[in-house]
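[[Encoded backbone]]
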Amino acid sequence: MTMAEMTDAALALVRARAGCRLIAIDGMCGSGKSTLGQRLAEALGGNLLHMDDFFLTAAQRTPERLAQVGGNVDYERFERTVLRPLLAGVAFSYRPFDCAKGALAAAVQVAPRPVTVVEGAYSLHPYFADPWDVRLFVETPPDVQQARILARNGAKMLDRFVREWIPMENQYFSQYALRNHCDRVLTSGDEAGENIGSCARIPQY
């Protein structure tokens, strides 16, 4: 699917759900989650939040934590500082993880909007129970995934993705059978000029 086709399919699903407020986009790195999330938020006049803002800090990256399936993000902080106020429909603030500095940045203020899109791997972590009105899973063929990561992040970071982050994501997808619990699985193709996967941030550790 092209990004335009993915966007149209996702919007059709959202608009068919009366009272849809919370949309989660999980899936493979380099598949186009960030781009899709941005397009949905713009089309719906909603907030866009990124799970990349909840990477673990250095103190949290213990062997025990990283051994947990889906433990690569601070899902507890996301639930406490973002999900609870979203469900309550109130304004909130949170401190995003600064990938360049490897630390939490200054607080970001978020005002309530009719729709909020949360994009990123681990957004459908079972720790959150099931607050989502629409659940999307975005995938792409492994060769396309690696080509995008290489173009976006370079050979050195591609090696880390292949050795570390992609296996962690795949274990999480498999352990919790995410594709089976989503409303729609969207498969992005090898599209030149679509700028897919250009938005992701990389932790500097």
